[in-house]
Structures are given as structure tokens and as C-alpha cells.
Amino acid sequence: GENVEQHPSTLSVQEGDSAVIKCTYSDSASNYFPWYKQELGKGPQLIIDIRSNVGEKKDQRIAVTLNKTAKHFSLHITETQPEDSAVYFCAASLSAYGNKLVFGAGTILRVKS
Amino acid sequence: GAVVSQHPSRVICKSGTSVKIECRSLDFQATTMFWYRQFPKQSLMLMATSNEGSKATYEQGVEKDKFLINHASLTLSTLTVTSAHPEDSSFYICSASSGGNSNQPQHFGDGTRLSIL
Question: Cys-Cys crosslink for A24: which of A2, A72, A109, A111, Cβ 3.0 to 4.6 Å?
């Protein structure tokens, strides 16, 4: 089955700097890769996703890149703000709709002001 | 964005009690709902996948008689933890997804913190 590895486990950045979180996956059949942000005591919130027919996607300060050949994808947050502090999870799935997600272990992001 | 509501947000009860958690998709029809369990400082672990009108599919190691799942409508799924014990204390989170015309990727509820005394 699918296995998703996520690094780093914790990341501290200064406000205004960029943050990068990387994930690798094992199943070449996976073609949907979402990123979730989880704040303390809440459920994960979908912040951006990418499908395998696209190499990069951007939404304001957030971007995701995908390298299908190498089976890795990354989350990039630019101009970080204190409210970006949270746990971020990457995931992989066979499709965006109705298929189970396999999650990475999570990254605790701390943005210091 | 799509809204998934989970209720209750917190439950504290005695050992041996059965607890029901509801998960509702408020603005789309969820053909598939998922139930996860999350221990402190860990990732989400899928417990079961539930399709409307059919029996849930449980992940390996998850007791189906312990964790009863019902997905009777396109907007509601319930998870019942039967005869709960302290080791069942955890954060339970549901998500909802839909294919077809609505094409909604998984959106999560805000979780239920279950504490068994």
C-alpha cells in the first residue's frame, strides 16, 4: 500500500521568511496530493491540493510542487505570518473524490515574530 | 468552502458507556465519509470508509463491532463507540467527500474529543 513520508517534523522560521515542507510517496498510482493545516483542537483544513497532471499550483502565499518521476511533492509558504503556525499534513490518494487519503506524519510549523 | 459539521465536540463519560458521534455535510451531498482517529502529536489514522447506503469498510485492526458506523443519508454519518473504555479515549475526526457532479475532495469536521474515565 501507499506510504507517505514527511519532513521536517518541526520547522521554526522568522516572520516574513519562507517555509518549505517536503513529502515523498511510494505508490506510483497515486495522483492526488492535498495539504492540510491543523490548528490545536480542530480538524484539518484543506489549504491547497495538486493533481498528477500538474507540476505546480499557487494560491497567494501558498504553492505546491509535484515531481511524479521522483515521487515527491512540496509545500511552500512565502512571507510567513504568526497565524501560519500550525501542524501541516501532506497526503496522497488515488483520486480526489471518494478514495482514502494516506497522511504524512505532520510538520509543526512555528513562525516567530 | 465546503462545510462539515461534527457533533459533539467533546464527550466525557464513564467506562462502559456507548457514545455516538455525528458527522454532517452541510452544503454538499457526501457519497463517501471517512472516520479517523488521532492520538496526541500524531497523524490521522483512518478507521473506516463509509459509502451512503452500504456497509462501512474497516481498516485492518479496527473492530467493526466496537466502532459502529452508519451512513444512512448523503449528509449524515454516525460513529458509535460501544462500551467505551479508557483506551478508546482519543480525538475522532470525520471527513466527507463527493464524486459525480459535486466533486468535493475530503473536507474535515472539527473533531470530537472523547475522554473515558
Answer: A72
Which of A51, A99, A102, A108 would best serve as a mutation to test chain B binding (most B beta carbons within 10 A)? A99
- Structure confidence at residue B65 (pLDDT): 95
Q: Is B30 helix (H, G, I), strand (E, B) or coil?
A: coil
Name which of B7, B44, B95 to mutate to probe chain A: the one with the most chain A Cβ atoms within 10 A of its Cβ.
B44
For the cut 70, the answer to whether the pLDDT of residue A55 exceeds it is yes
What is d(CA B12, CA B19) in angstroms, rounded to the nearest whole number? 10
Q: What is the mean pLDDT of residues A16-22?
A: 98
Establish how many alpha carbons lie within 13 A of residue B41's alpha carbon, considering only the half-sphere containing its beta carbon.
2
Spatial CB neighbours of B1, under 8 Å, sequence gap ≥ 6: A46, B107
